[in-house]
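[Q] Does anyone have a clean structure-token version of this?
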Amino acid sequence: MRADRLVAALLLLQSRGRLTAAQLADELEVSVATARRDLEALSAAGIPVYPQPGRGGGWALVGGARTDLSGLSAPEAQALFLLVGPAAAVSGEAKTALRKLVQALPTTFRADAEAAAGATMIDPTRWGERDRARPPLVDRLQESVVRRTRVRLVYADARGRESERLVEPWGLVDKDEVWYLVAGTDHGRRTFRLDRVVTSEPTDETFERPADFELEQAWAEVVGEVEERRSQTWATVVVETRFVHVLRDHFGRHCHVEEDTDDGRSRVRVGAPTALDLARQLAGWGGDVDVPHPPAVREHLARIGAELAARYP
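[A] Here you go.
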């Protein structure tokens, strides 16, 4: 994780005052070339780090500048470590970074920060599923996002048709263990599923990310567009009120209770991309649900029921 090295390099510069690239490489256990790139990245990011050539030279913080870690309040430190702590359980690099961050905090904050770091853990594997490995492509694309370098992708669409794209990687999103790349293209902003990337090749071409781009806002727009496509067809369902929570769990944001009746049942609207999708999801309920409309969903349910009855008389 390159962010770990950048934070570590900054803290070392703060504590030592001056370091050569070779000294930093020894401390971080990386090559001298990697250490030099990290120092250059800090400088490019606006950190007042500068090189001094000649005998006794090296890299130093201008005017003894310091990081903001020592200026954190106690609540801010706890919030930071509550957030970072769970990642340390699944990443050795994050665990190393966490130890270094603890040492950078004021002494009075360290005990609470360490307790906050171990207060939560994340188990990303669903019940009954195998562990999902983090795609190696994520790390490579993260490097391109940080370094602002274009990437050439061979990408397969939903039908398996492949095409080559030259993209500007703006950010990565992990949504329920499925990774997405938000990128700039000749046709504007686009989103790519990493499991559909056939090949990726980094280039030496650099780019400038739009000044007004915010990954969180861009992803919210992507989610809104996708969810709208996933709920283009709606059906009215009448079900016992005690089962409404099951429908909500199944349909998520595409489930809305319209009315609770006096006979212990509820009138609910559920959405899906097509009438057939709705029928397939509701067929498993059998006679526990009634679908007054639309007619297209009722017709698909009748056909599915007839097919099942014919196969399992």
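[Q] Thanks! Anything notable?
[A] The mean pLDDT is 82.
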